[in-house]
């Protein structure tokens, strides 16, 4: 069983990384490809998902916690890897744990592919498992939850202005690399985002 891969990123396509580990190149799906760059050397915690028709698919994570949360989510009936990646991308591990712990259906239902009914089912299915996970030592990073919400607000605002997913991914990558202070207000980030996009036209 593959549990960890160390290699160099040769190409990035949407949520897919081509990871060169020497003599072999692996396709690895990730939640947010904007966090990676071609030529980066990375260590990825790996989950191998087997599909009867397509065979094995690899999913990579920067932390073991993200991997555990992904495995927790895909263990839910009717929830596949695509939705699990969307949860990690749009909410992050801490916000997801908080949503389940506090029965926050509204937060979960904002994720692409999850409606109110599915959010309710996930919370019922995972409430006990999340409680057990938190009891094992994994904690909810509240500052991470707040920061993630700010990025989601930026993404939602850009989507409402009809920017493409490619443009949004580029601007989020730019902002996360240049504005790491979690106290930077939403309004400032939006001004910088729009200025970046106007220069890219």
3D structure, described in words:
There is one protein chain. It is built from eight helices and five strands. α1 (64-74) crosses α2 (81-90), α3 (93-101) packs across α5 and α7 (165-178) crosses α8. The protein has three domains: 4-61, Nucleic acid-binding proteins (OB fold (Dihydrolipoamide Acetyltransferase, E2P), Beta Barrel); 64-135, DNA polymerase, domain 1, CATH 1.10.150; 142-200. The model has no long low-confidence stretch (mean pLDDT 86). The protein is globular, with a radius of gyration of 17 Å. It has 201 residues and is an alpha+beta fold. The N and C termini lie far apart (46 Å). The protein is 51% helix and 19% strand.
Short description:
The chain is α+β, with helices and mostly antiparallel strands. It has helices at residues 64-74, 81-90, 93-101, 105-109, 116-135, 142-160, 165-178, 186-200; strands at residues 4-13, 16-20, 25-29, 41-51, 55-61. The chain folds into three domains: 4-61, Beta Barrel (OB fold (Dihydrolipoamide Acetyltransferase, E2P)); 64-135, 5' to 3' exonuclease, C-terminal subdomain (DNA polymerase, domain 1), CATH 1.10.150; 142-200.
Descriptors for this entry?
201 residues, OB fold (Dihydrolipoamide Acetyltransferase, E2P), DNA polymerase, domain 1, 3 domains, five-stranded mixed beta barrel, globular
């Amino acid at each position: 069983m593959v549990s960890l891969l160390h290699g160099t990123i040769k190409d990035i396509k949407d949520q897919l990384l081509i990871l060169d580990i020497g003599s072999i190149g692996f396709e690895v799906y990730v939640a947010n490809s904007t966090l990676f760059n071609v030529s980066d050397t990375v260590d990825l915690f790996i989950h191998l998902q087997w599909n009867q028709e397509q065979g094995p698919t690899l999913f990579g994570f920067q932390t073991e916690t993200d991997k555990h949360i992904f495995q927790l989510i895909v263990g839910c009936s009717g929830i596949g890897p695509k939705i699990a990646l969307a949860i990690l991308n749009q909410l992050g591990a801490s916000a997801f744990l908080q949503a389940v712990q506090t029965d926050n259906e509204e937060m979960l239902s904002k994720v692409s592919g999850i409606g109110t009914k599915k959010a309710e089912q996930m919370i019922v299915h995972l409430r006990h498992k999340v409680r057990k996970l938190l009891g094992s030592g994994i904690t909810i990073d509240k500052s991470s939850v707040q920061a993630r919400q700010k990025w989601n607000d930026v993404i939602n605002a850009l989507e409402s202005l009809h920017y493409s997913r490619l443009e949004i991914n580029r601007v989020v990558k730019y902002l996360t690399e240049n504005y790491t202070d979690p106290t930077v207000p939403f309004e400032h980030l939006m001004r910088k985002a729009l200025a970046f996009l106007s220069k890219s036209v």
